[in-house]
Design a protein that fits this description.
alpha+beta, Lipocalin, TATA-Binding Protein, eight-stranded antiparallel beta sheet, 7 helices, 16 strands, 31% helix, elongated, YycI-like, Two-component system regulatory protein YycI
Length: 311
């Protein structure tokens, strides 16, 4: 055999050996890759967000609720006249302002205390929080569950520096029409999952500290009715709140200026141009003086809220 043929044969053998070794290497890498654990989106949520173990796995149902503004002049004249030690102003039938003749001491931490004694329909509201530096307590109206951040379903109680009640403002919704059939709701875990993966509202290290069912405004109709949608209220790190539509799963954007806008609305309603729409109850002061006192308190609160936001 000639030397050239032998060399060719060696080259072919080496090529075959190299191909074999390369194939072995590739097969081994594929095998190693197959053994690398795959992190699912559920695992990612579990690793990055704390408090998931406290979520309920229960399946819930709740109806859409059809409501309209509560007409105080039509439905609560006698109750307003019976309120102790206060003068009441009702504007546009649906906004109630009350100023106590003397500051009233009240123990808000005592579950036996009856807020309804001093505040009209006080038993229909649930405590939500306090506006820092403004000495204002916030209560949301309840219809079995709280109605989150609805300007037509809120009670604000204004305190003096000693923690006594000086005045309050409120609005209220009432149910109209036939009850809606209960709708199946997404589970609490699914709401958290959407907040983290879909809406990017949660970040690594966040702690889910509470989840509660409530209502959020879905749509306002031309006839003045408002449809409320079941909503998961999700508290994160004790202070942050997120709201997820419990039927469709989308989140509701937060309005950081909600309280400022609410107070501005209350001030505007007391303008002289709206005098024809104002009704007084238990009036002792001059009407203009009473409105001035109420407005001054609201303007002071508004200023404090703005200062807090700036800081």
């Amino acid at each position: 055999m000639q030397w050239g043929q032998i060399k060719t044969l060696f080259i072919i053998c080496f090529l075959i050996l190299n191909i074999f070794l390369i194939k072995q290497l590739i097969d081994r890498q594929d095998e190693e890759i197959r053994f690398i654990p795959v992190t699912t989106r559920e695992d990612e949520l579990k690793f990055n967000i704390n408090g998931l173990e406290n979520l309920s796995d229960e399946s819930y149902t709740a109806p859409l609720v059809h409501t309209q503004n509560y007409n105080y002049n039509l439905r609560a004249k006698e109750e307003i006249e019976a309120l102790p030690d206060q003068q009441v102003v009702v504007v546009d039938n649906t906004y109630l302002y009350s100023r106590f003749n003397q500051p009233v001491a009240f123990d808000f931490g005592d579950p036996e205390s009856d807020l309804e004694t001093y505040v009209l329909n006080g038993d229909r509201y649930t405590y939500w929080g306090e506006l820092d530096l403004a000495n204002v307590l916030v209560f949301f109206q309840e219809m079995e569950h709280p109605i989150f951040y609805n300007t037509n379903a809120i009670l604000l109680i204004y305190l003096n520096s000693e923690g006594q009640m000086t005045q309050y403002t409120q609005s209220q919704l009432r149910i109209v029409g036939s009850p809606d059939d209960g709708r199946s709701l997404i589970k609490q875990y699914d709401a958290i999952y959407r907040l983290y993966h879909h809406f990017k509202e949660l970040v690594t290290g966040d702690v889910v500290t509470d989840v509660a069912l409530g209502y959020h405004n879905l749509i306002s109709l031309p006839n003045g009715e408002m449809i409320l949608n079941p909503t998961w209220g999700i508290q994160v790190n004790h202070d942050d709140h997120h709201f997820v539509n419990a039927i469709e799963g989308h989140n509701y954007p937060q309005n950081d200026r909600f309280y400022e806008e609410k107070i501005t609305e209350l001030v505007t309603l007391l303008e002289p141009s709206n005098a024809d729409n104002i009704v007084y109850y238990q009036l002792k002061d001059d009407p203009e003086d009473l409105l001035l006192k109420i407005k001054q308190m609201l303007l002071a609160v508004q200023q404090n809220i703005v200062e807090v936001d700036i800081e």
